[in-house]
Amino acid sequence: MRDRMSRRQVLGIGGALGVVALGGLSSAAALSRRPASTGAVLRSAVPLPPAFQVPLPLPPVLSGAEIEIVQREVTAEILPGVPTRLWTYGGTFPGPTIESRRGHAVTVAHRNELPVPTVVHLHGGRTPAESDGYPTDLVLPAGWGHAGHGMHDPRAVTSEVTRSYTFPLDQRATMLWYHDHRMDFTAPAIWRGLAGMHIVRDASEESLELPSGVRELPLMIADRAFAADGSLAYPSIDTTLQMHPGVQEPYIAGVLGDVILVNGAPWPVHEVDGARYRLRILNASNARHYDLEAVLDDGRRLDLVQIGADQGLLRAPVIHRNLPIAPAERYDVILDFGQVPVGSRVRIVNRMGSGRARDVMAFSVVRKAADGSRIPEVLSDDLPVWQQSEALRVRDFSFRAGRMGNGHGWLIGGQPFAPDRTDVTTRLGDVEIWRLVADVHHPVHLHLVGFQVLSRGGRAPLPHDAGLKDTVSLRPGESVEIITRFDGYRGRYLFHCHNAEHEDMGMMANLEIT
Asked: What EC number(s) are associated with this protein in UniProt (predicted)?
């Protein structure tokens, strides 16, 4: 652990952690005011376009049992008229949306033509350990001459240039996403563009007559900031992302951009029929939380009818007026434009945002249309049911800032991540209850398994906690209790905070399933 700590000492993050994370307030005041997001805003140095002018892009779709994706750098136009260099999957941001069938294995061969090592993780996938994207299982670019980074990991499996990941997809139909998971450098790699969506379908879901085709929209929400030359601004200590991890001191609690992108476009607009639409929403931001609301220009709000969570359909729909979503969470939502007059605009706004970060995107209702879709009263009957009496053990985990060597980091149970240390061991098939407690915002993600939220702060879960999840948002000072069965595969997995800056700075732990 000493090697890891000594590397953290060069971050120069000193004692300002609490000021940034809690907005300069005392701890008690910060917790009572519940800050909108943990982190600091990085301001763009280039003029920003007006909202709701750029059409919503839809990523290209890939399908089949064998898929090839080249990770490469491209120049693209995100802000109108401004060229921006991106790291991409297949030349686009977001990367291609992979479409697959439940129980039909998919092998994705990733070729790394970027200047740094990469790792691919299918977030939410029930995946064997060798394809789960462990942070030290690097895919090295051609000619990579560095000795590597991080602690020595005797179990690491590195690949030269290309690696094939096999995803059995023996899991419920849902929307997953894939992103870079390289140790210490996940946050800047995602920020530069290494993220894409993966939709798993099955016949049961298709029989429900939910909105489909052009009325089903995958929406990846992500905030970014832009430098004066149009490049993506990010406060890395090492801008090459080759050796020295970490961000500059004002941003150690998380990097928040001032431009809201949806599918890689700033504050886009999409023309829709007067009918129901299915929105597959992903928060792919590094640290920004959103509280989404659908509002007409006359101030009326539309219901957000949630039909699914991270790991697939709910048992029954849940109606929201607003829907909070933390980094890495996904929500499957129906928005009904059938009662909206033609010519009207529906804005998706972020109640947690201020200034330009309050707008997300807009829909313009352009025509009346027939609508054969429906929202069934019962959506799914295959959700697992785990009784608390089944739990073989209860574990407690704290997610807090703490000292690492001579600096600060983000810790689980008082310890920073170490690849060569096993933090939790459980047996395949065991049911466990985990109690999680946070100091500031921490979206906690478990690899391999989905879970159900049992309680928040000792009270009942909130309405948006329904269904099977793989990421749960802990608000400042909050405790959450979850239950899961560790099934699927044996091997080494992870659980961690999905504030990507926290993850890179130690807030990750090993989970060994035997």
From this structure: 1.16.3.4
Tell the residue number behind the tokens 């439940």, with chain if given: 102
- Across the strands, what pairs with 156? none
CA dihedral angle for residue 493, residue 471, residue 181, residue 261, rounded to 10 degrees: 170
Cβ(98)–Cβ(110) under 8 Å? no
User: What does pLDDT average to over the chain?
Assistant: 92
Q: In a 3-state reduction of DSSP, which class is residue 283?
A: strand
d(CA 333, CA 337): 13
Which of these, 367, 330, 374, 333, lies nearest to 469 by C-alpha position?
330
Length of the chain, in residues: 514
Task: Write down the pTM of the prediction.
Answer: 0.93
Distance CA 92, CA 115 (A): 17
Give the mean model confidence (pLDDT) for residues 4-15: 31
CA gyration radius, the chain = 22
Q: Contact at 8 Å (CB) between 326 and 289?
A: yes
How far is residue 395's CA from residue 481's CA, in Å, rounded to a whole number?
10
pLDDT tens figures, 389-432? 999 999 999 999 998 766 779 999 999 999 999 999 999 999 99
d(CA 368, CA 243): 56
**What distance in Å separates the CA atoms of residue 98 and residue 67, rounded to the nearest whole number?**
9
Q: CB–CB of 361/505 below 8 Å?
A: no
* Per-residue pLDDT tens over the stretch 370-389: 999 999 999 999 999 999 99
In Å, the largest CA–CA distance within the chain is 65
pLDDT score at 168: 98
CB–CB of 496/503 below 8 Å? yes
CA atoms of 32 and 487, how far apart (whole Å): 38
171: Cα separation from own chain's centroid: 19
Average pLDDT for residues 229-234, to the nearest whole number?
98
Per-residue DSSP letter, 103: T
Cis-peptide into 94, omega within 30 deg: yes
Residue 60 and residue 54: Cα distance in Å, rounded? 18
Residues near 40 by beta carbon (within 8 Å), at least 6 away in sequence: 20, 250, 251, 253, 254, 255, 256
Q: CA–CA separation, 95 vs 310, rounded Å?
A: 19
Q: Which of 144, 185, 183, 184 is nearest to 161 (CA)?
A: 144
Alpha helix locations (H) across 138-293?
Answer: 186-191, 203-206
Q: Among 457, 447, 414, which residue's Cα sits nearest to residue 134? A: 447
Question: Which residue, 390, 271, 407, 244, is CA-closest to 337?
Answer: 271
Q: Which pLDDT band, with edges at 50, 70 and 90, does 9 fall under?
A: very low
